[in-house]
Amino acid sequence: MELPLGKLRNEVLKEVVFPNLGVEDAKVVYGPREGFDSAVLEYDDEHYLIVATDPTLGVPAETFGFFTYHFAASDVAVFGARPRWLVVDLLLPSGASKKFLEDAMKALNDECRFYGSSIIGGHTGLYPSVSEPTATTTAMGLVRKNELKLPLAKPGDKIVVTAKVGLEFAVSAAYFREDELSKILSKKELMRLKRSFYFETAVPDALAAKPFVRGMHDATEGGLTALHEIADNSEVGFRVYAEKLTVDPLVRKVLEFYDLEPWSVSSTGTLIAITPPEKSNSLITELNKNGILAFELGEFTEEDDRLLIENGEERPFLEFERDPYVGLY
Fold first, then answer.
1. How many C-beta atoms surround the C-beta of residue 4 within 10 A?
2. What are the residue ranges of helices labelled H in the chain?
3. Are the beta carbons of 63 and 100 closer than 8 angstroms?
4. Which of 77, 184, 302, 311: disulfide with 203, CB 3.0–4.6 Å?
5. CB burial class (10 A; 0-12, 13-18, 19+) of residue 154?
6. What is the C-alpha separation between 66 and 107, in angstroms, rounded?
7. Backbone phi, then psi, for 14, in 5-degree steps?
8. Span 158-328: which CATH code?
9. Do residues 164 and 203 lie in contact, with contact meaning Cβ atoms separated by under 8 Å?
10. Domain residue spans in the chain?
């Protein structure tokens, strides 16, 4: 059986990966499971240690340092912790330039300083078997036990989403398919999309949202189909209203060009917030105050149906099959 490109599917994780995780350890409060992008470890009487790891590869050179920080840091932040410590493995191909390394490290350092994070170790090197710059970052942070945020929902909880749906795909297309997109976008629009990579992070969103949410999730590969993982782990259903979806007009233009719906497109940096109904408006207001546009997309339900309501009609919400982003990369 040949595995498909992109993240391993949940059925492969259950069959191959999860049965082979070494010894059990009482310090592990939440270990590997589908829909959980961080581990939760006992730290002391008052705190949990949140740990997440992510690769950075296949991204434009000017974004490499930024994403080396934010891919893993976002997973820590959505569990309620400020990213505090990073371990970074930085592997470069033969012929990599000192300037690329300098630019990447300066960008990574800028993000660390802005969020108060320290790089505490890692590995660096050039290897002939490495075909492109590749980083693996492990991020860690502490959260008070009563402030831990898990991607779990209760019936009646609202689904609040930050307005970055499809942005990752559109930005990547602007870099990797510029010739194609130049047929429908001006040079100014292409440049605006390219510079929008700075919004592909859930760190500021999660830190601002933390007091108002029950849980959070970053809509990475598969985009909003991550709602299925939340529903599976919570034993709930959900209803999503298409008319409430807010997509940047430039992003929508790119998605329409490739004949794509926004629901299952990779949307790294898009925060899915699970919030009690009485806190939904306050959450959206707080995000807006921090310059983050957000909207209420639907709610979790006691019934186990997962529905998309569009033009008054109900249909099953899309399942994750193959993210179009993989085709770009």
1. 12
2. 10-12, 64-77, 98-115, 167-176, 178-181, 187-195, 203-209, 226-234, 249-257, 280-289, 324-328
3. no
4. 77
5. middle
6. 6
7. -65, -35
8. 3.90.650.10
9. no
10. 22-147, 158-328
CATH number of 22-147: 3.30.1330.10
Q: How far apart (Å, rounded) are the C-alpha atoms in residues 98 and 116?
A: 26
pLDDT at 91: 97
Which two tokens mark 325? 């982003």
What is the 3-state secondary structure of 249-314? HHHHHHHHHCCCCCCCCCCCCCEEEEECHHHHHHHHHHHHHCCCCEEEEEEEECCCCEEEEECCEE
3-state SS, residue 54: strand
Q: Is the dihedral of CA 27, 32, 33, 36 positive or negative?
A: positive
Instruction: Say how many residues make up the chain.
Output: 329
The string over 111-136, giving b where at least 16 C-beta atoms fall within 10 Å of a residue's C-beta and e elsewhere, is: bbeebebebeeeeeeeeeeeeebbbb
Backbone angles phi, psi at 131, to 5 degrees: -95, -15
Residue (of 219, 185, 196) closest to 63 by Cα position: 196
- What pLDDT, in 10s, does the model give residues 266-305? 999 999 999 999 999 999 999 999 999 999 999 999 999 9
- Positions in the chain whose pLDDT score sits under 70: 322-329
Locus of tokens 């831990």: 148
**Mean pLDDT across the chain, nearest whole number?**
95
Q: Look at strands 118-127 and 85-93 and give their pairing.
A: parallel
CA distances from 6 to 16, 174, 262, 264 (A): 16, 20, 18, 14
Pairing verdict, β 237-241 and 313-316 = unpaired
Neighbours of 264 (CB within 10 A): 23
